[in-house]
Amino acid sequence: MNLLRAAATISGLTFLSRVTGLIRETLVAATYGAGPMTDAFFVAFRLPNLLRRLFAEGAFTQAFVPMLAETRSDPGRAKAVADSVATILFWTLLLVSLAGILAAPYLVLLVASGLREDAQTFRIAVTLTRWMFPYILLISLVALSAGILNLWRKFAVPAFAPVLLNLSFIFAAVFLSEFFDPPIYALAAGVLIGGIAQLAWQVPALLRIGMLPRIGLSPRRAARDPIVRRILKNMGPAVLAVSVAQFSLIINTQIASHLAPGSVSWISFGDRLMEFPTALLGIAIGTVLLPSLSQAHADDNPAQYSALLDWGLRLCLLLAAPAMVGLALMAEPLVALMFHYGAFSGHDLAMTARTVVAYSAGLFGLIAVKILAPGFFAKQDVRTPMK
Question: Phi first, then psi: what are they for 209, rounded to 5°?
């Protein structure tokens, strides 16, 4: 498959995802503004989102895809590995979700202890956390499905899945808010609906390639598979590698929770704009490169491996540098265009624009890392990116 065409396909669908994501954030900003209620929601959503990036899209995918690539020539063996991994993932994250629901008050304190200064905001954040924690289980199974489909070069199906989450958000904000008190609870319902929709969307594609994982009843038996043990072993350093950026985000949230009401929302809206070019460029190219690099390494083809990595870095330099400059120079009009409606005030606009300018300084590095890291993961070297 032509890699540029595949990257363009993913980038186009990711663009659709980010456009619907911006519509989602615009609706949230216009409906709820940037205040205590939205702070509570963003704090609550940050917790399952953190675990999602640690255990699902980040560490898991980077450890899983290269190992599965080794078995692709033997469909029966590949299916057995996928079944074993799905079994371990399901039962582990089911326990994690239950633990998160029980420990929600302590988790909110860990991420944003400043919210306890307002008892109502803290209580709402805890309730939202409990409602949304099962999302980590759903989205991890989505990540497993996406890793399989990407290795089989079915890039479009998983690339479209995030659009369904955004549409669920929009549906919840527009049609469900009147059924909840306070209305912000509707967004939690949208998260769960979106997780179910993303998983259901990928099932037909998995069936068509004969790779729909079967979840067994014994994770201990599944862990006996030598390839699965290697995946679990590689996930440890990969979790540490991915967690650095995520823990930085928690530190940002913790600090913001002790500042003026709305601070958590300002950095969240700013992060949303920064993620737009990161997803279009870094995630799209990295998603295409990881299975291709893994296959080149499995085939012992260093020339192909080197050519793929060079292609990714050159494309990154061509596109990311102008995006970084443009985001910094146009921060205020971009924020105004996206969020300055309804309850989103002029002060919210000014403060969010400051976060966009600050975030833009690291844009090129963030995108380059998403291209360089798969080069190591494809060789099953998870320690170098961790360091």
Answer: -95, 5
Residue 204 exposed, middle or buried by CB count within 10 Å (0-12, 13-18, 19+): exposed
DSSP 103: T
SS3 state of residue 225: coil
Residue 211 DSSP one-character state: -
For residue 74, report the phi and psi dihedrals to the nearest 5 degrees.
-120, 90
> What's the CA gap between 197 and 287, in Å, rounded?
21
Q: Which residue has the tokens 């990257």?
A: 7
Q: What burial class does residue 5 get, using C-beta atoms within 10 Å of its C-beta: 0-12 exposed, 13-18 middle, 19+ buried?
A: exposed
8 pLDDT higher than 70: no
Q: What is the pLDDT of residues 281-295, one digit of tens each?
A: 777 777 778 778 887
- Distance of alpha carbon 356 from alpha carbon 334, whole angstroms: 9
- The two structure tokens encoding residue 355: 């976060």
Cα 379 to Cα 267: distance, rounded to the nearest angstrom? 36
Give the rounded distance of the alpha carbon of 21 from its chain centre: 13
CB 274 within 8 A of CB 266: no
Is residue 380 exposed (0-12), middle (13-18) or buried (19+ Cβ within 10 Å)?
middle
**Apex CA 378: angle with CA 246 and CA 10, to 5°?**
70
Listed residue (294, 386, 276) closest to 338, CA to CA: 276
Q: What is the mean pLDDT of the segment spanning 304-317?
A: 87
* Residue linked to tokens 């799209």: 284
- What type of residue sits at position 243? S
Q: What is the DSSP letter of 260?
A: S
Is residue 272 helix, strand or coil?
helix
Token reading at 138: 């759903």
Q: Which residues contact 204 (CB under 8 A, 6 or more apart)?
A: none
> End-to-end distance of the chain based on CA atoms, in angstroms?
33
Residue 44 and residue 188 in contact, taking contact as beta carbons nearer than 8 Å: yes
CA 370 to mean position of chain CA atoms: 13
Residue 87: pLDDT over 80: yes
Cα 233 to chain center, whole Å?
22
Percent of the chain with pLDDT over 70: 91
Q: How far apart are CA 84 and CA 215, in angstroms?
A: 7
